[in-house]
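input
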Amino acid sequence: MGGLESNETFVSLREEAVLFSLIGNFEYTWNLIGDQVTTELFQVERHRDCFESILALFAKGIHIDPVTVLNEMQAHDATLWLDSIIQRVDFVPALQVAHYVAEMNQIHQAQQVSEFIEQEKNVRKPPDDRISALIDLLRQVKPEEIALERAQTGLACVYQDILDREGEQDEKILSTPWRELNAMLSGGMRPGEMCVIAGRPGMGKSALSLCLARHFAETGKSVLYVSLEMSRPQISQRLMAQISGVPLGCIRKNQLTHNQLGAMRSAIEWDYDLVFCDHVRTLEQVRSMIIRARAQNQKIDALIVDYLQLFDGESETENRQLEIAKLSRDFKLLSQQEEMPVVILSQLNRSLESRKNKRPLLSDLRESGALEQDADLVMFLYRPWIYDKTESHEETELIVAKHRAGPTGTIPLRWIGETCSFIE
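output
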């Protein structure tokens, strides 16, 4: 951009043009740039003084013009200087002034980042902490723009998008391994959605999430699987069991037949974009991984987290319910910012064990009602055999308890314990 010169003359002229426009036509200019311009953007001290004088007049409800500004600035001995601006600066269209303010913001943001990097040179911190601190700074210096759109424009975009995709499968939708669930979800999970999979211990949440991750990868998606529940070797053993069909118990005990070894050898050829991580403890560490991947042109299409309650809170509060609520909200924002589905596993309150009917309810979500509020999709995993050994060991209910964009219901699945898999 041609207006980002650091030359002091250009900086001074740009700032003077903004001040001239505010003094000459305050109401119109302020409506255009008032939410973007601050005192810190003015690098020249006298310009900062002038802008503060304009703000002071505005706060007092006094009409802003060259005379009132001069009177307000008497203490700064700026009469001759302001006179020279009024005589020297040509009329500048308000839209051009908005452009100047945007450039001033960019220069100010670049200076803040440079100062931060300079300060961090002599500070000993782990790399992830440095990245997190820089991310926090970038959020402050460059907040997301609030996009406004007329309703009619949005309707037209929906219609045009349907025409563009007529007869084609939406590539952004991530199908699941289960056809009945896909039908209920109108094809599968979508970017920007947060899905919660919850259940009591032993129901198979981790196994179900690994089935999802494997299927996402096999359909051409890049998947980041973050586990605080299992180590990478444990996850890899389960994945090997799913792909090869060799019982997990045989793999763990190293008691394998010739045919099973052959099946495992063939499974090694499974080469899809699924990445395991077992060493993070905070959401910021997860966010840093995603940002680093994007910087290396490695887009992540889906994030799966096992499980929420094992994450450390980043605030100093001792209220775990508030920490979980913040984590829930932050994961939802992450799904929207990175435009990918985020699947979060969660525990359920043990209070349901005291009920006669132990099928989970939304009120059973552990430690936070925020999960229910933030999630676009809430699914419970329920296996009756866990509570009643006369029931089938395989019978499983995947209960869709909340679906923001469609119907709810129960999907019947079968639990294959030997390979830790769920099938229809």
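quick obs: The mean pLDDT is 80.
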